Amino acid sequence: MKNSILSLLAVAALVACKKSDTTTMNTTGDSTAMMTNDSATVGNDSTMMPADSAATGTNSSVTANLSAQDKKFADAAARGGMMEVMMGQLASTNANSAEVKSLGAMMVKDHSKANDELKQWASTAGYTLPTSLDADKQKKYDDLKAKKGADFDRAYTDLMVSDHKKDIAEFKEEASKGTESSLKSFANKTVPTLEHHLMESEKAKAAAK
After folding, report:
1. Please, what sign has the CA dihedral across residues 86, 88, 92, 95?
2. 107 and 29 in one domain?
3. 3-state percent helix, strand, coil for the chain, nearest multiple of 5
4. In percent, how much of the chain has pLDDT > 70?
5. Is residue 106 domain-shared with residue 185, that is, in the same domain?
6. Where does the DUF4142 domain lie (predicted)?
7. Residue 39 and residue 133 in one domain
8. With bands split at pLDDT 50, 70 and 90, how would you rate the model's confidence at 14?
9. d(Cα 162, Cα 158) in Å, to the nearest integer?
């Protein structure tokens, strides 16, 4: 009888030990799983942070580097380019001579290309360009639009000569005094085209007198 009781106690102790081991293992397993999941979550958050910075940092850093000169030039170039295209389009219908019509077509083609390049720069830099003429340029356009034939030819070629002299000076100033390298490069490479426009405008002006 005594031996039976001892045997029962031994079995009970053995079962208790096994339960304790199982509980310890489960607890350890749960802790390990939780730590793994938490670590994965932190890892994901850490991975996302640089991506967010990369998505927003590039444009803002370029915009922050723009000087007052850069912004003044970009705005003036955008409005000037728009006016050149609009006036060139008028020349196709309002001009009297074939030479002035041809001058207008060249202005539309070349300034549309330059305008697109400036817009591409602005998109990359995160800079907002003006989308309409200022009051002065709008008045010049409206006055020119009212003219026809020989009167149009004289007025248009006068404007093209005076405006391109002004444009060349502004583009050269940006090329030498600007801060943002891509905008300076755009200004510098556009100067020869503007100088060609001035030369052709002076020829057309002489023929229109």
Report:
1. positive
2. no
3. 90, 0, 10
4. 70
5. yes
6. 69-201
7. no
8. low
9. 6
Residue 35 and residue 132 in one domain: no
The larger pLDDT score, comparing residue 144 to residue 208, is at: 144
Q: How many CA atoms lie within 13 A of 119 on its CB side?
A: 11
Specify the amino acid at residue 108.
V
Q: Alpha-carbon distance 41 to 51, whole Å?
A: 16
Q: Do 60 and 82 share a domain, yes or no?
A: no
DSSP codes, 112-165: HHHHHHHHHHHHHHT-----S--HHHHHHHHHHHT--HHHHHHHHHHHHHHHHH
Model's pTM, two decimal places?
0.71
Task: Give the domain-ending residue among 26, 49, 64.
Answer: 64
pLDDT tier for residue 55 given thresholds of 50, 70 and 90? very low
Residue 95 phi, psi dihedral angles, 5° rounding: -75, 155
Q: Which residue segment(s) compose the domain that 133 sits in?
A: 66-208
Q: How distant is the alpha carbon of residue 5 from its chain centre?
A: 89
